[in-house]
């Protein structure tokens, strides 16, 4: 029987450091980092995409794109990366190791994944970066001022993103916690300190030989 890829979901508020930390984990533990937000922005920027305008409206308003779109982007990206690593002869990657950053963000995401992907991947745990909203706000505004070019790194979009996070994403983290899937890491401290806590978790599941 064909093995299924391992998946770790990475959740936390906007600006909690998901992307920053995922890049480090991917590098040290041979994971592929897939950010749902990055995949949606890429799809939005694809000329003639039938979803471009819909995605941009959701991003500006901090609301969540329908799961059929997001989950298909994730599944395609997973398949592409498994094929690419196999072609490169990366036997260490096996059937795949994916960090899925910024997903599932609401009940629609969660149920859509169960329907489309539950049989095709093993979700090992949920890495939850816990960060106060003031810190999230400050980091994203700073990221905007530093030229992120993101249409949602402004105060108005950030307020909306935080409301979505607290009303829709946190309940999903709580739901996953009921199945003991959540690994919580304090994320308001410096990058290095956050990563040290993350490493302890990954060493347990994916020890480096
Ligand atoms: P997310 O993907 O959760 O939105 P990012 O990783 O993009 O968050 O980080 C948001 C911003 O905050 C970026 O500009 C990043 O450089 C910065 N940042 C990330 N982690 C930290 C940290 N621990 N301390 C201070 N700034 C951070
Ligand atoms: O994770 P990131 O901050 O890059 O997400 C940016 C935006 O992309 C979100 O505020 C949301 O509008 C959209 N998104 C989504 N569904 C996801 C992930 C991101 O609709 N699962
Ligand atoms: Mg991000």
Automatic annotation (TrEMBL):
PROSITE patterns, from UniProt?
ADENYLATE_KINASE
Instruction: Enumerate the subcellular locations listed in this protein's record, separating them with semicolons.
Output: Cytoplasm; Nucleus
The UniProt record lists the EC number as 2.7.4.14
Q: Which GO terms describe its molecular function?
A: ATP binding; nucleoside monophosphate kinase activity
Signal recorded as keyword = no
Q: Which Pfam families match?
A: ADK
- Residues reported to bind CMP: 109
Name by which UniProt lists this protein:
UMP-CMP kinase
What does the similarity note say?
A: Belongs to the adenylate kinase family. UMP-CMP kinase subfamily.
Can you quote the domain comment? Consists of three domains, a large central CORE domain and two small peripheral domains, NMPbind and LID, which undergo movements during catalysis. The LID domain closes over the site of phosphoryl transfer upon ATP binding. Assembling and dissambling the active center during each catalytic cycle provides an effective means to prevent ATP hydrolysis.
CDD domains for this protein: ADK
Its keywords, alphabetically, are: ATP-binding, Cytoplasm, Kinase, Nucleotide-binding, Nucleus, Pyrimidine biosynthesis, Transferase
State where a ribonucleoside 5'-phosphate binds. 41, 63-65, 102-105, 150, 161
Q: What does the UniProt function comment say about this protein?
A: Catalyzes the phosphorylation of pyrimidine nucleoside monophosphates at the expense of ATP. Plays an important role in de novo pyrimidine nucleotide biosynthesis. Has preference for UMP and CMP as phosphate acceptors.
Quaternary structure and partners = Monomer.
Which Gene3D superfamilies does the record cross-reference, listed alphabetically?
P-loop containing nucleotide triphosphate hydrolases
